Amino acid sequence: MRKIFHFTFVLITIVFFVIAFKNISTMYSADVYAERGRQLFDDGNYQESFQYLQRAVNLNPLEPRYYIARAKTLVGLTPGASDSNTRTYKLLALEDLRTAENLNPNNIITVKGAVSLYYFLATKDLTRPAGPENTDLEFVDITKSFYKHIWNKSPNDVGIFVLLHTYSKRLGFEDLTEESGQKIRELRPDLLEWYNFN
Questions:
Q1: Which windows of the sequence hold TPR repeats (predicted)?
Q2: By three-state DSSP, how is residue 123 classified?
Q3: pTM of the full predicted structure?
Q4: Domain of 45: which CATH number?
């Protein structure tokens, strides 16, 4: 009886270590693919970047950073794409942004990374100067909703309000520009002059 127990214990231990090694190996491979995808993005190779980030997501679908990076790559594919492809890329990026937030809704890094990407979704033509006359009407309300949604995520993190102020102003969201400026004034009035927000 004792030998059977010992054999069973050893077998369970081996199986546990094999599974643990496989999981660690998979997560490591996902990180390698994601890092390569980021490098390719920085080099302007968006299509190949997307492929590497897709592999990272497939290996570890629970990592929000991969979805943010893939959304960034999808936005990078929009300049020069046809209208229908641009819309498809933006919808896929939006899905990735929402997935990233749902995976870890309290992660401030994920929230901050998404603010600029929502701005790019709401911008019609990324090759032209930003402004209210260069907005993609399909994504303007979605972006404004997200900006309002994250308002209370971290009420004392001035970095979020600086981002909200910057991108709201570019998109012509006057109410959010005013409110985020007021919040910055409450938290760090010196930043208003530093960033020339006056």
A1: 30-63
A2: strand
A3: 0.84
A4: 1.25.40
